């Protein structure tokens, strides 16, 4: 029961992080009016947050390995609450952009810190499933942004909506201080002070492990499409380019979360039972994402609602699919550097997301703004990322399998040598 309490407190912090991450995505049109921002500038507004998030992953992982989950979750919640409060009160574009950067920094500290709790508090056979549950239930924050936050935003004011979100951050911080412990034995304490050179060497060692890079490309190929859709361009695309109402757009984002929950449970069970088939599951998810976008973008006119539902359902599987990348990191890295490895994996999808978001903003601006045709061309930038991710997965998977085979062979030789020495020892005694 204690393990579930700790995990629930961490999960609430992650729910708040997802809520903070996605609020601007559902309030993009209001933000454009409040700050007088063009599509290109609005995309930069969000991209900076993701740049900070992605750029902070490795430092956050290093800090996590040194100070543990509790400290980083509390710090992350405090940063996000501060950023959202500043965004609620300012009408200055530079201050608003800075506020989103602060939110991105707090967000960067949260997710991998919650994931780090899982192997400490749960037995190994449950870790893949609980990891998936962390990712999928964390997306309830997206439901909060798509429904109550959006309703509060349209029914009251910008300031009221964003102050309310900041209050959730304070609540998450208090619960984390009260309930979370790094391990059943207490707080994680670093055993030694590492120099900058030693830290850099450790980071290099973690990255050079093929399993870490396999997780990186897994996260990249599966996560970015649904992230770009939910975080930035999904609501404008559905309402302006596809002619759907704001309520329908919000409902489709809710469908995305429900899909992620269902798919996450299934993927968690499958990856736990068939660990050697994880990469095939990932490749299937990437292929399905590319296929459904091809069908939608090939239409010369607006897509019917049922096809948009299918689109949202298919790309939403990529969210829990990206969690397999963290499973690769856990499998192929020791516990002492797991935070760093998870931070590197988490960079994959968000680097891809920020590049696609920025590229789409530039293309939309060059095409004259939001329209069916401009969105149709802008979404095609996704195919370059899928191609890169698939190549990366295939190469690193092969290297990982070779490394595993070599380690198994070395282990068998060591066992053979020990048995031989034991037999010789017995013969000498006779």
Task: Write structural notes for this entry.
The chain is mainly alpha-helical and 430 residues long. It has a single domain (2-184, 195-429), classed as MFS general substrate transporter like domains (Growth Hormone, Chain: A), CATH 1.20.1250.20. Helix content is 85%, strand content 0%. It has helices at residues 2-26, 28-35, 39-55, 57-67, 69-89, 93-121, 127-138, 140-155, 158-179, 196-208, 210-241, 246-273, 278-298, 305-316, 318-332, 338-366, 372-378, 382-429.
Kindly state the mean pLDDT as a whole number?
84
The CATH H-level superfamily is: MFS general substrate transporter like domains
Secondary structure class reads: mainly alpha
How many helices in DSSP terms?
18
What letter string, H or E per element, gives the SSE order? HHHHHHHHHHHHHHHHHH
- The radius of gyration computed from the alpha-carbon positions, rounded to a whole number of angstroms, is 23 Å
């Amino acid at each position: 029961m204690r393990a579930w309490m700790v995990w629930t407190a961490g999960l609430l912090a992650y729910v708040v992080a997802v809520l903070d991450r996605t609020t601007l995505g559902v309030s993009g049109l209001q933000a454009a009016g409040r700050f007088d921002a063009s599509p290109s500038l609005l995309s930069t507004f969000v991209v900076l947050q993701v740049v900070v998030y992605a750029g902070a992953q490795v430092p956050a992982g290093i800090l996590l390995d040194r100070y543990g989950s509790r400290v980083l979750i509390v710090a992350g919640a405090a940063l996000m609450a501060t950023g959202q409060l500043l965004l609620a009160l300012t009408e200055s574009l530079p201050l608003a952009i800075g506020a989103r950067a602060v939110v991105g920094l707090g967000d960067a500290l949260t997710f991998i810190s919650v994931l780090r709790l899982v192997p400490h508090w749960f037995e190994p056979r449950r870790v893949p499933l609980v990891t998936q549950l962390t990712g999928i239930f964390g997306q309830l924050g997206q439901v909060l942004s798509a429904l109550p936050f959006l309703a509060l935003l349209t029914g009251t004011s910008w300031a009221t909506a964003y102050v309310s979100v900041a209050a959730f951050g304070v609540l998450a911080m208090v619960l984390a201080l009260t309930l979370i412990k790094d391990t059943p034995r207490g707080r994680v304490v670093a055993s030694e002070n590492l120099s900058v050179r030693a830290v850099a060497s450790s980071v290099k060692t973690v990255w050079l492990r093929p399993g870490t890079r396999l997780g990186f490309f897994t996260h990249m190929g599966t996560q970015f499409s649904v992230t770009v859709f939910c975080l930035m361009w999904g609501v404008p695309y559905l309402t302006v380019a596809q002619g759907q109402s704001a309520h329908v757009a919000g409902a489709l984002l809710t469908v995305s979360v429900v899909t992620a929950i269902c798919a996450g449970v299934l993927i968690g069970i499958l990856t736990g039972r068939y660990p050697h088939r994880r990469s095939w599951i990932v490749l299937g998810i990437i292929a399905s994402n590319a296929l459904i976008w091809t069908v939608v973008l090939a239409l010369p006119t607006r897509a019917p609602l049922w096809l948009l539902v299918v689109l949202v359902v298919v790309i939403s599987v990529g969210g829990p699919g990206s969690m397999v990348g963290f499973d690769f990191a856990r499998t192929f890295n020791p516990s002492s550097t797991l935070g760093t490895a998870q931070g590197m994996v988490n960079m994959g999808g968000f680097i891809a997301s920020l590049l696609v978001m920025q590229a789409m903003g530039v293309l939309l601006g060059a095409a004259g703004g939001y329209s069916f045709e401009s969105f149709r061309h802008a979404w095609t930038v996704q195919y370059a990322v899928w191609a890169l991710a698939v190549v990366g997965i295939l190469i690193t998977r092969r290297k990982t399998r070779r490394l595993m085979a070599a380690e198994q062979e070395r282990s068998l030789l060591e066992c053979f040598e020990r048995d031989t020495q034991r037999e010789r020892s017995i013969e000498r005694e006779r």
